[in-house]
Amino acid sequence: MSLPLYPASLSNPLPLRQNFSAESRHCKPLLFSTTRGKQWYYRSKNITRLTVNSRISSLKEPPLSNPAALLAKEAHKYFDQAVITVRAGDGGHGAILSMPSQKINTKSQGRHEKEKRMRSSYKRDSDGSLILPMGGHGGDVVLYADEGLESLLEFHKKRRYSAKRGGNVDAMGTLTSQLHDGFAAPALRVPVPVGTVVKRKKGKLLADLARPGDEIVVARGGQGGISLLEMPEHKRKKLMALSTNVMRDENDKVLVLGQPGEEVSLELILRVVADVGLVGLPNAGKSTLLATLTLAKPDIADYPFTTLIPNLGRLDGDPNLGALKYSSEATLADLPGLIEGAHLGKGLGRNFLRHLRRTRLLVHVVDAAAENPVKDYKTVKEELRMYNPNYLERPYIVVLNKIDLPEARDRLASLIQDISMIGCRETTKLNIRPKMLTENKNEHSVSSGTGCEEIKEKEIEDYPQPLAVVGASVLKHIGIEEMLIEIRAGLRKCWDLDKSLETETTGFLPS
Ligand SMILES: Nc1nc2c(ncn2[C@@H]2O[C@H](COP(=O)(O)OP(=O)(O)OP(=O)(O)O)[C@@H](O)[C@H]2O)c(=O)[nH]1
């Protein structure tokens, strides 16, 4: 069996591919001219092995028995995590060519003149050797953050993404000056929601696509094969003076084959990116609040856990800012209700607590008509503290909802006072930035070093008081303006803190 050859760059004579084994480094390198310049090639057994591996890994993926039904029923389990396999396109093939036969019409032109003209029409390298066409590069696979997507559910329906292969060199066996490279296949661009973290399956972090338009090449397309000139052995020596791309023996034919595209399994993890996170017990009115303030259309119903996956809505800028109106627009995330024990995974808890990670301002929504609103409020705060104490350092406001109901309206004043008093006055700049926050308190104690014991021991009363406590009925549109004023003031405070932190670290005022 002939052994394939593998391309390597001139500057780095070791092959670029990670699966290339050490044994092949001992193979004798060969230098060829390609349309991308001179390139080294090595003989290797690995291409055959790579192809076999990729087939085995594709067989391992277990198909979902009834994906659509399962996803609809248990969307909350799947919306923020997915494993996919991407395969870049193989390179197109080069061609084996022969030099054109030179029948000379001596009547009209001299033999040397015509030969010279034909030779000069070929593409040549700087050292005068012929450049032969190459197979097209296989398409890369690129993941990019798209604002239009909100969850990773689609990736459970389709788990495999393959880019196109590069085009072959279109040749009839004879070298002509008209020959072109095979076409390079376009990259396969796969949209993912903003906030998607891309990792190699059980491996290292590749990218955090946190802003719209962020992108990463996750699999590179294979390089196209080169073309070779074939000549009977007795004429080969003469031809080698003209070009390095001369086929020396049958084994060289593998160089003409395009290289396989990379195939990788990826883990996608979605972390919701929102300026404001709505938190509260189930049925407190979080989804109704989101629907009132934004154009979002979340499911609203009179039973707990109507919200299964976070809903996002866009809040318009502050009209008082005039021409700068849109500079203060923000994203709101309505998270599923938290219950006691959420930090341990009760209810839908733990999965969703992590989605607060990238929010700046928290809005606690409390059902003021409930039996004990202060206890409900404390339950939610305690769950946040147990999951990640840093969440309690963040600026927040409290909305006492459902004040259209008499039982809420009658005790509103005392509720506002009681809740305003929970916590300490001082605010710290510490950990305001969402990106600096760690996932949970265990991580926190490892990563933050000094002072973590102190944070762990703090009670909810030791964390800052709310920026504001407002009464509202989001259903009946009571107190909405006041609530909006407080949300915007809270957001401005977060942005100001961000700026001052930036100035402290860089020493420059941000533009
Ligand atoms: N009377 C009254 N009812 C309200 C108000 N806001 C919400 N509700 C009702 O409370 C119920 C729960 O509202 P949702 O917005 O679904 O509550 P949620 O906090 O998102 O609930 P989960 O999805 O379980 O987390 C619905 O029947 C709403 O109509 C309000 O201001 N007044």
Q: What's the short version?
A:
The chain has 511 residues and is an alpha/beta fold. Helices cover 26% and strands 19% of the residues. It has a six-stranded mixed β-sheet with strand order 15-16-14-17-18-19, sandwiched between helices. Strands 7-4-13-9-10 form a five-stranded mixed β-sheet, with no helix packed on it. A three-stranded antiparallel β-sheet has the order 1-3-2, with no helix packed on it.
Strand and helix map with partners:
Layout: E1 5-8, E2 30-34, E3 37-43, H1 46-60, H2 67-73, H3 75-78, E4 81-87, E5 96-97, H4 111-120, E6 141-146, H5 154-157, E7 160-162, E8 188-193, E9 196-200, E10 205-209, E11 215-219, E12 228-229, H6 233-242, E13 263-270, E14 276-279, H7 286-293, E15 311-315, E16 330-334, H8 349-353, E17 361-367, H9 373-387, E18 396-401, H10 406-410, H11 412-421, H12 441-447, H13 452-457, E19 468-471, H14 480-506
Parallel strand pairs: 4-7, 5-12, 6-8, 14-16, 14-17, 17-18, 18-19
Antiparallel strand pairs: 1-3, 2-3, 4-13, 6-11, 9-10, 9-13, 15-16
The structure holds guanosine-5'-triphosphate.
Write down the Rg. 32 Å
Strand content: 15-25%
- CATH class term of the largest domain: Alpha Beta
Name of the CATH superfamily of the largest domain: P-loop containing nucleotide triphosphate hydrolases
**Tell me, what's the shape?**
elongated
Low-confidence stretches: 1-26, 44-63, 322-327, 428-456
Architecture per CATH nomenclature, i.e. the level-2 architecture of the largest domain: 3-Layer(aba) Sandwich
> What's the N-to-C terminus distance?
64 Å
Instruction: Return the average pLDDT rounded to an integer.
Output: 74
Which class of secondary structure composition applies to the elements? alpha/beta
Number of domain units? 2
Question: What proportion of the residues is helical, as a percent range?
Answer: 25-40%
